[in-house]
Specification:
heterotrimer, A alpha/beta (271), B mainly alpha (259), C mainly alpha (263), B: 259 residues, MetI-like fold, C: 263 residues, mainly alpha, 10 helices
């Protein structure tokens, strides 16, 4: 008990912040609600009154227990699901559907099994008005970015889980989206592959300057990656607290500040 | 009212009933107005009328009872034998090595192709029909039981062993339950096959049963109505029994297997 | 490789031993040769069947060709009808819900029970057999095509939608390829049904075809010819189903689901 209190005392200024000041709201989520009709009448409220502003090039993680609506919120930002109320705007334009600058990386098994890796990436270009050759060249370029040019002609089932998710990232980047929405993309990977892909993602994020919204179950992962961590609570899904992670990257998983913030988030999550 | 209409629209059963009744109604109208020849293509209601004029409920019931008796006894024994042999072949290596080649050799032969041989071996009476229905159930069940036994997660067997199980207790308390979902699939396929085989056997060589009833009607130049009623009855019987087997399977393994 | 060879040797030995036991049991009078013709007699029967034929003039090869011809006609007719219809019904969920009970019921009707009715409608000739095969294949194929189209992994649909792909383009680029393995499985099952039906259908009103051969041989107390016919039917079914499996591996190399849908 004692060392934890000690660390809590030394908690830096930024991690105590309530809602941080965001200068340029790039993604603006205001009073978003989502409910489904329940069995036998009534409605189940999955999300209620979500307000969140995300700045350009910011890396934000959504963390919470199963059923807190984090994937639903991501899908609403992606334009894949409609909110029951409220609105989401990207750069001032309300989101009405997919293809407004959002690229999505899903959990595992979202690659098209009948397309080779390079064609999966090329799927993203299908409406971009490119010739077949241009499409292939661009796809190869993206595969190179994720280090998979050698596996271009392999089918998804011939790739390891980590490689599949690299292809997923390359595919999501195809239309050069301003926003990358990621739904537990590394959740099914083993620890070592997961760490590798986290580093890879940070490298891509820094090289290409994207705004990232990242859904995860792992506090650790959120701490390694994000600028801010949005903690969601369930029944109904709502924002419980927002944590600002002020540490320099690359971050150390053993730094006292890292552990202190971990402790904080865990306490908030389990309270 | 509006809410009720929405509830009905959302119910698969209601929508499906509309589809089925719609089809029957179209047929009914076409036959009654003479758009199609009602003697050749009688609608279900006309067919029932025609059949009622030629057959008593007792005759139909008797033929129905014979068909049911044959299919239940043949299937019951065929499925049991298939399960026992399949499980044994999957569990005991030596037995498997002997039984498998013989089963694999005979399995591709459709059960109906056994009809002539069954008559040669057992004559034209009940045993030959019983034998064919038996085969219809036996092969799907024996194959799926064997397959189920061979694809048990070895981790489960090891877990059983660490708790001191071995030999026959390990077989019955771990291996057989683990193979149950495959076995259930085989039983369901076997039931469908037994049923199809039953009808064929009754068409080719029988003097009672639903299959005999309809082929006899056509051979004696009777009414199409009787044939259609017979066909619908056979279809309904198959549907109901298959649903019953499905429900029983669900009760048996649904909770942990999830189908 | 070595293990496979050993397994093959064991299988061959078991089958050989069974044949030998059978031969001996007949020689020593435990089994009646009329009921259980020994291998030697079956071999002689095969020579007769492939030269003079049974009935005289119709060799085993022409029986086989007749049967294959009938199955293929009915099967292809069923595919031509069932695939477009299934693709349509699967694409429109309301249509699927409307037709589902009818499809399920028609599928439960044992195909051969239609035989008397089809004879009344089309006579006892070729057309009747082909119609029966087509009926059996059609419903099996149709329900598989519908299921293939309807139960596409929602994750794949979501992934495609995230690129703004929707409507007919979504159907063409994602739903259709995703449904192919199931459609293929349906095509294989339907062919199995076709072979099942033909044997029954040929037992009535014809002297050509393998089903007729085995039935006809029985009435002449030629059980060895019945057995040869059965073996040919079995081998034919086996060869065709392996052939289709090979074709699927060739056409859908990306699909790893082959083992799951094997049965």
């Amino acid at each position: 008990m004692a060392p934890r209190a000690h660390l809590a005392l030394r908690r830096p200024e930024w991690s105590r912040g309530e809602h941080p000041v965001v200068n340029v709201p790039f993604i603006e989520i205001s009073s978003v609600r989502k409910s489904f009709p329940a069995r036998g009448g009534g409605a189940v409220s999955v999300l209620s009154g979500i307000d969140l502003a995300i700045a350009e090039n910011e890396f934000v993680s959504l963390v919470g227990r199963s059923g807190c609506g984090k994937t639903t919120l991501l899908n609403i930002i992606a334009g894949l699901e409609a909110a029951s109320g409220g609105s989401v705007a990207i750069a001032g334009r309300p989101v009405t559907g997919p293809g407004q600058g959002q690229g999505v990386v899903f959990q595992q098994h979202a690659l098209f099994p009948w397309l080779a890796a390079v064609d999966n990436v090329g799927f993203g270009f299908r409406n971009a008005g490119l010739s077949k050759r241009q499409r292939r060249a661009r796809s190869m370029e993206l595969l190179r970015l994720v280090g998979l040019q050698a596996a271009a002609t392999k089918y998804p089932r011939e790739l390891s889980g980590g490689m599949q998710q690299r292809v997923s990232i390359a595919r999501a980047l195809a239309l050069d989206p301003q926003i990358l929405l990621m739904d537990e993309p590394f959740g099914a990977l083993d620890e070592l592959t997961r760490i590798e892909l986290q580093q890879e993602l940070l490298r891509i994020w820094q090289a290409r300057r994207k705004t990232v919204v990242f859904v995860t179950h792992s506090i650790n992962e959120a701490l390694i990656l994000s600028d801010r961590i949005v903690l969601l609570a369930a029944n109904p899904g709502r924002i419980k607290r927002i944590f600002e992670v002020g540490m320099e990257r690359p971050r150390s998983r053993t730094a006292p500040s890292f552990n202190a913030l971990y402790e904080d988030i865990w306490n908030e999550l389990s309270s | 009212m509006n809410a009720l209409a929405r509830r009905l629209r959302d119910s698969d059963l209601a929508v499906g009933a509309v589809g089925a009744f719609g089809l029957v109604a179209i047929w009914e109208i076409a036959a009654r107005t003479g758009l199609v020849d009602p003697q050749l293509f009688p609608s279900p209601l006309l067919a029932i009328e025609m059949a009622a004029a030629r057959l008593t409920a007792e005759t139909v019931g008797e033929n129905l009872a014979w068909s049911l008796f044959r299919v239940f006894s043949g299937f019951g024994l065929g499925a049991s034998a298939g399960a026992v042999i399949g499980i044994a072949a999957g569990w005991y290596r030596t037995f498997g090595m002997i039984a498998r080649p013989l089963i694999e050799l005979l399995r591709p032969i459709p059960p109906l192709a056994w009809i002539p041989l069954a008559i040669i071996w057992f004559g034209l009476g009940e045993p030959s029909k019983f034998f064919i229905i038996f085969l219809g159930a036996f092969f799907p069940v024996v194959t799926s039981a064997y397959h189920g036994m061979r694809s048990i997660d070895p981790m489960l067997l090891r877990a059983g062993q660490t708790m001191g199980l071995g030999g026959v207790p390990l077989l019955f308390r771990v291996a057989v339950p683990a193979a149950a979902p495959d076995l259930a699939t085989g039983v369901r396929i076997g039931w469908g096959l037994s049923f199809g085989v039953l009808v064929a056997a009754e068409l080719v060589a029988a003097d009672r049963g639903l299959g005999y009833m309809i082929i006899n009607e056509r051979n004696t130049g009777g009414s199409v109505g009787v044939i259609i009623v017979g066909i619908l009855l056979i279809g309904l019987l198959n549907l109901v029994t298959d649903a019953a087997i499905g429900a029983a399977t669900k009760r048996w393994i649904g909770r942990w297997h999830g189908t | 490789m070595r293990a496979r060879l050993a397994r093959f040797a064991v299988s061959a030995a078991v089958i050989g031993a069974a044949l030998l036991a059978w031969e001996l049991a007949v020689r020593f009078g435990y089994l009646k040769p009329y009921q259980f013709p020994p291998a030697s007699r079956i071999a002689r029967g095969f020579v007769e069947l492939s030269t003079t034929g049974f009935p005289t003039g119709v060799s085993i090869w022409s029986h086989t060709l007749v049967t294959i011809g009938r199955v293929l006609q009915g099967y292809l007719a069923a595919l031509v009808l069932a695939i477009p219809l299934g693709l349509l019904i699967g694409a429109l969920p309301f249509l699927d819900r409307l037709t589902a009970p009818v499809v399920v019921f028609c599928r439960s009707i044992a195909t051969l029970s239609l035989l008397p009715l089809v004879i009344v409608w089309f006579g006892a000739g070729e057309l009747t057999k082909i119609v029966l095969i087509a009926y059996g294949c059609f419903w099996t194929m149709l329900s598989n095509v519908i299921a293939g189209v309807r139960y596409v992994d929602p994750m794949l649909i979501r992934a495609a939608r995230s690129f703004g792909v929707a409507g007919i383009e979504l159907y063409r680029t994602v739903v259709l390829p995703a449904a192919l393995p199931r459609i293929f499985a349906g095509a294989r099952m339907a062919l199995g049904v076709g072979f099942m039906v033909i044997v029954g259908a040929e037992m009535i009103g014809t002297i050509e075809g393998l089903g007729a051969l085995i039935m006809e041989a029985r009435t002449f107390y030629r059980s060895e010819i019945t057995m040869i016919g059965m073996l040919v039917i079995g081998m034919l079914g086996f060869a065709i189903s392996s052939g289709l499996a090979g074709l699927e591996r060739l056409l859908l190399p990306w699909s790893g689901s082959l083992d799951e849908v094997r049965r």
